[in-house]
Design a protein that fits this description.
With 402 residues, this protein is α/β, with parallel strands linked by helices. It has helices at 3-6, 21-32, 63-68, 82-93, 114-120, 145-151, 162-166, 179-197, 199-202, 211-216, 220-227, 259-268, 283-288, 290-301, 306-315, 326-330, 333-337, 379-385; strands spanning 13-17, 36-41, 54-57, 60-62, 72-76, 97-100, 125-130, 205-210, 243-247, 250-254, 320-322, 341-346, 350-355. It is 36% helix and 16% strand.
Length: 402
């Protein structure tokens, strides 16, 4: 069977009206699962098209935009015009899902408010993706990646572990890239799938996704411990011993939660004299003396190479894993066999390896599809062939302008 036959969303149509990373990522994940995703941009195109880092500067080709917009069709429409809103409404008549991250205050003027959309399209799943959701005292707030990450609480707990030991004076930091927005996009993808699964029974729904809410789930253990009366901080948020360890040729992660794992670690280290102390047979005592134990483990780890530690640790039941760099992932036989990365042919760059999806269906990898095209590249097909509307062929970017 072909990969297309394994795509679970084949036959579904998704309209994506999104400027941000979270909503665009949700559209991307639905696209690689087989849905026909039409990205509707303003006449000038999405601002994400010039978001850094750039693969090329002339013309500007954003690596982020290309990652977020594989396997989509591209149409332009001016929703500020009456004609544009009418055309967009006709497009929604043929859709299963609308993804939208337009700020709440701007939605009524564009006829994108929940009441209008659900009233005109009762069978549509309206996936609203906003920094703080569409309800609540912060619903009208705008936010950047930095804001939603810290609003979710995770930033308060960083850096920790080895990073805090290495840089004890460093202030709270942000995870590199767009971690918080990708969490929001992941949550939105799951919410859209859930709404589609019950659509035959309940009809269309307005699905309210908050990027902040999604990121609170990242810190769920800190919230759980707060319920137990323990306020986790950067200083206390670390394994009693283990965590990130520096080896002679890079870093590994070590997690020892069970007694057998501790015993395997001691054997792996050659049964050092310090680990034979009778008091250290008590896991509670080991927890109390975590810093002391970690000093010994770190000193030992610096004399080891990653491959030996991971291989021998696996044999002894000790959970060691290498901290991979990007180049390690691209060269991984495991990931190559699962087709996690596939070549994406970008017109101004050429073929580059791009991530497909973190899952498969029926043992088959999903298809990455094609690279992002220019704004309005599919106007003829979207507006002309599908809706029998003739766009202005002299200026493709002005479709739907009164």
């Amino acid at each position: 069977m072909t990969n297309a036959e394994h795509a679970p969303l084949a036959g579904f149509t998704v309209i994506e009206h999104a400027e941000g990373v979270a909503a665009s990522y949700a559209g991307r994940m639905l696209a690689v699962m087989g849905a026909s995703v039409i990205k509707v941009e303003p006449p000038a195109g999405s601002a994400l098209r010039t978001s850094e880092p750039l693969l090329t500067s002339e013309p500007p080709a954003s690596a982020l935009f290309h990652y977020l917009n594989t396997r989509k069709k591209f149409a332009t429409c001016d929703l500020a015009s009456a004609e544009g809103r009418t055309l967009f409404g006709r497009l929604l008549d043929r859709a299963d899902v609308l993804i939208d991250d337009t700020p709440l205050a701007a939605r009524p003027g564009l006829k994108l408010d929940a009441e209008t959309i659900t009233g005109n399209h009762p069978g549509l799943v309206y996936l609203s993706v906003l920094p703080f959701g569409a309800d609540g005292v912060h619903a009208d707030y705008r936010a950047y990646e930095l804001n939603v990450l810290h609003a979710g609480g995770e930033g308060f707990l960083m850096p920790n572990g080895l990073a805090l030991e290495t840089f004890p004076e460093r202030p709270p930091v942000k995870i590199y890239g767009h971690f918080a927005e990708f969490m929001g996009g992941t949550s939105a993808t799951c919410a859209a799938l859930a709404a589609l699964m019950v659509r035959d029974e309940v009809g269309g729904q307005f699905v309210d996704v908050s990027v902040q809410d999604a990121n609170i789930s990242v810190g769920c253990f800190a919230i759980q411990r707060l319920g137990d009366g323990v306020l986790e901080t950067r200083d206390t948020r670390s394994f009693k011993y283990g965590g990130v360890l520096e080896c002679s040729d890079g870093y590994v992660g070590l997690l020892t939660l069970e007694e057998r794992q501790w015993e395997g670690l001691v054997e792996l280290m050659g049964n050092p004299e310090w680990a034979q102390e009778a008091a250290l047979k008590d896991p509670l005592e080991r927890g109390r003396r975590g810093k002391e134990i970690n000093a010994h483990i770190r000193a030992w780890a610096k004399t080891q190479c990653i491959a030996d530690v991971v291989a021998k640790g696996q044999q002894l039941g000790v959970p060691f894993a290498k901290y991979n760099e990007a180049s390690d992932l691209l060269a991984s036989d495991q990931l190559r066999q699962r087709k996690v990365f596939e070549p994406l042919d970008i017109s101004s760059v050429g073929a580059v390896p791009a991530f497909t999806a973190p899952f498969q269906f029926d043992g088959a990898a999903l298809e990455l599809g094609w690279a992002a095209a220019e704004p309005g590249a599919d106007n003829d097909a979207v507006w002309g062939e599908s809706l029998d509307h003739q766009p202005d062929v002299k200026n493709r970017g002005r479709v739907g302008t009164a």
